[in-house]
Design a protein that fits this description.
CATH topology of chain B: TIM Barrel
Order of helices and strands of chain B: EEEHEHEHEHHEEEHEHEHEHH
Helix content of chain A: 10-25%
Oligomer: heterodimer
Order of helices and strands of chain A: EHEHEHHEHEEEEEEEEEEH
Shape of chain B: globular
Strand content of chain A: 25-35%
Number of strands of chain B: 12
Shape of chain A: globular
Strand order of the largest sheet of chain A: 2-1-3-4-14-13-12-9
Helix content of chain B: 25-40%
Structural class of chain B: alpha/beta
CATH architecture of chain A: 3-Layer(aba) Sandwich
Number of domains of chain B: 1
Number of strands of chain A: 14
Number of domains of chain A: 1
CATH architecture of chain B: Alpha-Beta Barrel
Largest sheet of chain A: 8 strands, mixed
Structural class of chain A: alpha/beta
Largest sheet of chain B: 8 strands, parallel, barrel
CATH superfamily of chain B: Aldolase class I
Strand content of chain B: 25-35%
């Protein structure tokens, strides 16, 4: 069973639907026991970093996620991916889950050429380091992004990037812990194939 | 870089996809879920659903359709029609929509744009404008193009952006359904004054119309209904054609 963590941030309908569509057993849950009994965990998230982290800490889920990440594959999506890092500079400075080395910074400070923020739309994901998560994915296929902040200083864990004025960190991995800045559940066939590969890890 | 988007638009009334010309003369076209499936298979980058139902029953049916689409199609979905309050946003987002398009509801109460942007983020709020030339001015129309609001379209676009809209869909009533090409004059007028992504709607009749559209670099997406619904233009063929002409397109499904 794949547990999708429900901590009141974002809309989980498409994510749970995409896993069901792939024939995978999943459960949207806020119960620690479900995370403990799950084979894999997905940490979704949309919205502000500080608010999301506060919710994870207050519910005690932050601690459970850190523990479980040592034992089983975890995938953070969008804000859920950003939460995996050491800290974020989104409107102030916030501590993250510290599962992957690196920081989350505003895109606007680093991109050149008058590009719009948020980085929103379909962009090609180039593989920089091969990994089992790319089993069904070809380098250069497009994925769907919506975000204004991005992870940096994380070259060690970076698996894939998309060009948007800077190389935007698209997919990362450290041990069992994966993170995707884009939304695989909104990235058409390519996204479904990434989710399927994650489920098979 | 972010690619240009091709967006089929599905106007849904009483559970069926319909299409009118110049906002009038409505015809029954297809089953929405089947049509959405077809567009997903042929490479649509996003789908827009407008609920043009008047009745309460029709609205419930629309939500069911939306849920059915979002349970098997995994590309961005934008939903509009009858969005008057933040609760309306909530209702459609829970059914799998990613973006919500406001039109008459925002004209009646412009604070809706800011309230929704604050709660769900700018990227979630799409300002849809139905615009027509009146006395040498681009004028905003409400209620599905039936009512002249007297509002200047340039002012409304500027204000929508300032209030927090993340994207503008500009529907030209003058070219809608005529299939003689997009309204580039109107698109340029708006494109020069806003920074947020601009989606062109109204007038697509053939593949070349999209090429002409994307030659104006301020345009992020082309939206059409009739030419896709009737299968006059296949989205795969269109994207291959545009790609070959040098437009940055997402080429895989």
């Amino acid at each position: 069973m794949i547990a999708i963590i429900d901590y009141g941030v974002g809309n989980l309908y498409s994510l749970s639907s995409s896993l069901k569509f792939l024939g995978l057993d999943c459960r949207v849950t806020k119960r620690k026991e479900d995370l403990q009994s799950a084979d894999k965990i997905i940490l979704p998230g949309v919205g502000a970093f500080g608010d999301a982290m506060r919710r994870l800490v207050e519910t005690g889920l932050a601690e459970t996620v850190r523990e479980q990440a040592k034992e089983k594959p975890l995938l953070g999506i969008c804000l859920g991916m950003q939460l995996l890092f050491d800290k974020s500079y989104e409107y102030g400075e916030h501590e993250g889950l510290k599962l992957i080395k690196g920081v989350v910074s505003p895109l606007a400070a680093d991109i050149r050429g008058g590009l719009k923020v948020p980085h929103m739309g379909w962009n090609r994901l180039e593989i920089v380091k091969d990994d089992p998560i790319f089993r069904y994915f070809k380098s250069g296929e497009s994925v769907y992004y919506v975000h204004s902040f991005y992870a940096k200083d994380c070259a060690e864990s970076t698996l894939g990037v998309s060009e948007y004025g800077v190389p935007v960190t698209g997919l990362v991995r450290s041990g069992h812990v994966y993170g995707s800045q884009f939304h695989p559940e909104k990235s058409g066939g390519a996204g479904l194939r990434l989710l399927r590969a994650f489920a098979e890890i | 870089m972010v690619s240009k988007r091709i967006i089929p638009c599905l106007d849904v009334r009483n559970g069926r996809v319909v299409k009118g010309v110049n906002f009038e003369g409505i015809q029954d076209m297809a089953d929405p879920v089947e049509l959405a499936r077809w567009y997903n298979e042929t490479g649509a980058d996003e789908l827009v659903f407008y609920d043009i139902t008047a009745s309460f029953e029709g609205r419930a049916l629309f939500t069911d359709i939306l849920r059915a689409v979002a349970s098997e199609i995994f590309i961005p979905l934008t939903v509009g029609g009858g969005i008057n309050t933040v609760d309306d946003f909530d209702r459609v987002l829970k059914c799998g929509a990613d973006k919500v398009s406001v039109n008459s509801g925002a004209i009646k109460d412009p604070s809706l744009i800011g309230a929704a942007a604050k709660r769900y983020g700018d990227q979630c709020v799409v300002l849809s404008m139905d615009v027509k030339r009146v006395d040498g001015q681009f004028r905003v129309f409400a209620k599905g193009g039936r009512e002249d609001t007297g509002i200047d379209a340039l002012e409304w676009a500027r204000r929508g952006e300032a209030l927090g809209a993340g994207e503008i869909v500009l529907n030209s009533i003058d070219t809608d359904g005529v299939r003689g090409g997009f309204d580039l004059e109107m698109l340029r007028a708006i494109g020069e004054i806003v920074k947020i992504p601009l989606i062109a709607s109204g007038g697509a009749g053939k593949m070349e119309d999209f090429l002409e559209l994307f030659r104006y670099d301020r345009i992020d997406a082309g939206l059409a209904a009739g030419i896709f619904h009737t299968k006059k233009v296949n989205i795969w063929d269109l994207k291959r054609y545009l790609g070959a002409c040098g437009v940055n397109m997402r080429m895989e499904g």
